[in-house]
Amino acid sequence: ALYNSAESFPQPRCHPETRIELLEKLRDRLHEPQIRVVWLHGPAGAGKSAIMQTLSQQLEEMGNLGVTFFFKRGHPNRGNATVLFATLAYQLALFFPVVKEPILEQVRKKPLLAATSIASQLRELLVEPCQQVTHSTLPPRILLIDGLDECDGSAVQQEILRSVQHIFCEQALPVKLVIASRPEPEIQEIFKDPSFQGFHALNIEQSFRDVENFLRKEFSPHPG
C-alpha cells in the first residue's frame, strides 16, 4: 500500500518532461493555507497513479510526505479497506509523536485491534487518538490515497472519505489530503458535501497537452 512498496516495483512514475504543470499545481495548492483536500480525478488509464507516485517522491524529498495508501482492485489487502486504517495509524504514529502514544495505548489494550471491523479500527486507532490532540506545532504532512474507486464497494468509499475528512480536516493535526480516483458519482456526491471545507478539484485531462507535446517531440524526425 505504500508508495515505494517493493511489491509494486518498479513503480509507475511520470516521465520528467510530462505532467510538469499539473504537478506544480498540486504542490502549489497544497501550500495554500485554506486548502485542506485536493481531489485529482480523471478516467481510467489517464495516469493518476503515476502522478501520485511522482508526487509522493517529490514530497518525500521536500520532507512533507506523511501517509500513503495505494488501492489496487482485486488485491487481497489493497482491494478493500481492511488494512487501510491500521496502515494510516502506523504511519501517523511515525510522523506525529503527539498521537503515537495514544495509538500504542489502544493497541496495548486490544492487541487484535487490527483484525477487528473497519468501524472499530477507525474509531479506536484514529478517531479517539486524534481527539486527544488539541494543538500541534509540527510541520504539515501530506496524506495521499490513490485509486479510491478501486476499493470494493461504493458505500465503503464514501465512508473512507467521510472518515478522513473528519479525522484530518477537523482535528488539530497539520495534515492535508490528496485523493486520486475516477470521477464516480458516489465519490462526487461526498465531495459536493458542504462539510468538505477547503476542497479543491483538479482534472487530470488538463495535463494531456504536455504529454502530447512530449510524444510529438519524440516521434518527430531528428536531423541526421
From TrEMBL:
Q: Which PROSITE patterns match?
A: NACHT
Instruction: Print the keywords alphabetically.
Output: Repeat
Pfam families from the entry? Answer: NPHP3_N
NACHT domain residues: 36-183
Please tell me whether the keyword Repeat is annotated for this protein: yes
Q: Which InterPro entries match?
A: NACHT_NTPase (IPR007111), NPHP3-like_N (IPR056884), P-loop_NTPase (IPR027417)
Q: What is this protein called?
A: NACHT domain-containing protein
